[in-house]
Amino acid sequence: MKPEYDMNNYTVQRIIHETRITNLFLHALDGKTKRTFAFTCGDMKIGDSSFINAMKNDFVAARAVRNEMHKINEVDLYNVDCYMVNNHSFEQMKEWVDKAIQTNSLLVILFHGVGGGNALNVSLPAHRDILKYIKQHEKDIWVAPMLDVAEYVKKWQTNK
Q: What pLDDT score does 45 carry?
């Protein structure tokens, strides 16, 4: 890794500046003003300083990388947990889906690579099987973009 890209050499102001520039660029491409953020490799601090508080007005939510799921009243929109897939089998991912259904919890599944070519990978058959399983249970599962989920959670938590 080049020293200039090492999070240890970043400042909070630098990451805020870079994400705001990126949001402006994306807005120019798609016209959207609301976005979510994913912590790079789960890094939530620069040095010993958290940077998400300074970015809360720039994003509706931010995704972390802990293997946890929470009920709607427990979701922290600026620290949304997810299950990162790293060579997990269909059976393992199915357990996550079943648990989310049973506990009525938010399950976010993070895929980096499907079918090879990535250090964080899932096999094409396991990926296909979990998508089929989710489709078979669509009456019990709401699948939506992270932004839609975050806005729903925020509205629900505000009105509870």
A: 85
Separation CA 45–CA 52 (nearest Å): 8
Locus of tokens 């980096």? 112
Which residue in this structure is represented by tokens 């890094």?
A: 43
Do 79 and 45 contact (CB within 8 A), yes or no? no
- Is residue 84 within 8 Å of residue 67, measured between CB atoms? yes
Cβ–Cβ < 8 Å for 64, 52: no
CA distance 29 to 129: 34
Contact yes or no for 84/110 (Cβ under 8 A): yes
Pairing of β 109-110 and β 61-63: unpaired
Residues of the chain with pLDDT under 50: none
Q: Which of 17, 28, 26 is nearest to 147 (CA)?
A: 26
Residues 80 and 108: their CA atoms lie apart, in Å, by 8
> Largest Cα–Cα distance in the chain?
49
Residue 34 and residue 60 in contact, taking contact as beta carbons nearer than 8 Å: yes
Radius of gyration of the chain (CA): 17
